[in-house]
Design brief:
Shape: globular
Radius of gyration: 18 Å
Structural class: alpha/beta
Largest sheet: 7 strands, antiparallel
Low-confidence stretches: 280-284
CATH class of the largest domain: Alpha Beta
Order of helices and strands: EEHEEEHEEEHEHEEHEHEEEHEHH
Number of strands: 16
Distance between the termini: 19 Å
CATH superfamily of the largest domain: Nucleotide-binding domain of ferredoxin-NADP reductase (FNR) module
CATH architecture of the largest domain: 3-Layer(aba) Sandwich
CATH topology of the largest domain: Rossmann fold
Helix content: 25-40%
Number of helices: 9
Strand content: 25-35%
């Protein structure tokens, strides 16, 4: 069992919640870009979540979760002292930082919870990091202080103009590239369509662009094949070959199609009320 050490919402809208989990073996090995898979209980589904931070001395791992699906909503009902049945990791390949001198990390919405630890990890290694953090509105902005401390330049954009610069994060990236900013690499994390637009914007400049992919996953070991995607015409598995891939080679149409496979089942699971428990904290 893996105990929840602390829990806190990361914005006023409480759309993203941070959990610190007691998991010494995972904390000892975790690196930026890797993820874990948790289960609420023995009946629960396996949910992949990127590692936001780890503290080997304390034996803790930090994850940031958006309570939108059944399992993440169930997790959000739990409190410090409660325990998760499974917390497996670290999984996936760490972010490759070799040879990089200047990068731009671009996050969209809750994707900034994934983008931030990667940006900080690069910054800690002496890499110059510009970060563009995009949100719909001011009330869902997360990790602003942490992002400012962990990067060289932070640009915050909001779709409605309620905070930072008005407009989309991709628009800001385009402006920086048009102004002559040169990066060894650009990394994007967020909604699939956003990452696709980032890759379309960077391709004419020939800038290597990495996309952090988080498709449907089950076992996290490459055995089930649920997380397969096409990259450069080849089948890859996000859990063992990724989760980071060359965005200019990703088959985005295939990713978008696969992402909607279980939309109806997810909707039914979220709406189902158990006759025994009467609420969301049910097995399933």
């Amino acid at each position: 069992m893996f105990k929840i050490v602390s829990k806190r919402p990361l914005n006023e809208a409480k759309t993203v919640v941070e959990f610190v989990i007691d998991a010494p073996l995972v904390a000892r090995k975790a690196k930026p870009g890797q993820f874990i898979i948790f289960r609420i209980d023995e009946y629960g589904e396996r949910v992949p979540v990127t590692i936001a931070a780890s503290d080997p001395k304390k034996g803790t791992v930090t994850i940031m979760v958006q309570p939108v699906g059944k399992s993440t909503k169930m997790l959000n009902t739990m409190e410090p002292g409660d325990c998760l049945a499974d917390f497996v990791g670290p999984l996936g390949r760490p972010t490759n930082m070799e040879g990089l001198k200047k990068v731009c990390v671009i996050g969209g919405g809750v994707g900034n919870a994934i983008a931030y630890p990667v940006a900080k990890g690069m910054h800690d290694r002496g890499i110059q990091v510009d970060m563009i953090a995009g949100f719909r509105s001011k009330d869902i902005v997360i990790l602003e202080e942490e992002m400012r401390a962990g990067t060289d330049h932070l640009y915050i954009t909001t779709d409605d103009g309620s905070y930072g610069e008005a407009g989309f994060n991709v628009t800001k990236l385009q402006a920086l590239l048009d102004a002559g900013e040169q990066y060894d690499e650009i990394m994007c994390v967020g909604p699939t369509r956003m990452m696709q637009r980032v890759c379309e914007a960077t391709k004419p400049y020939g800038v290597k662009t990495i996309a952090s992919m988080n498709p449907i996953m089950l076992d996290g070991t490459g055995m089930c094949g649920a997380c397969r995607l096409t990259v450069g015409g080849e089948t890859k598995f996000a859990c063992v070959d990724g989760p980071e891939f060359d965005g200019h080679l990703v088959d985005w149409d295939g990713i978008i199609q696969r992402g909607a496979y279980y939309a109806q089942e997810e909707k039914e699971a979220a709406e189902h009320i158990c006759r025994i428990t009467g609420g969301v904290r049910e097995h399933g």
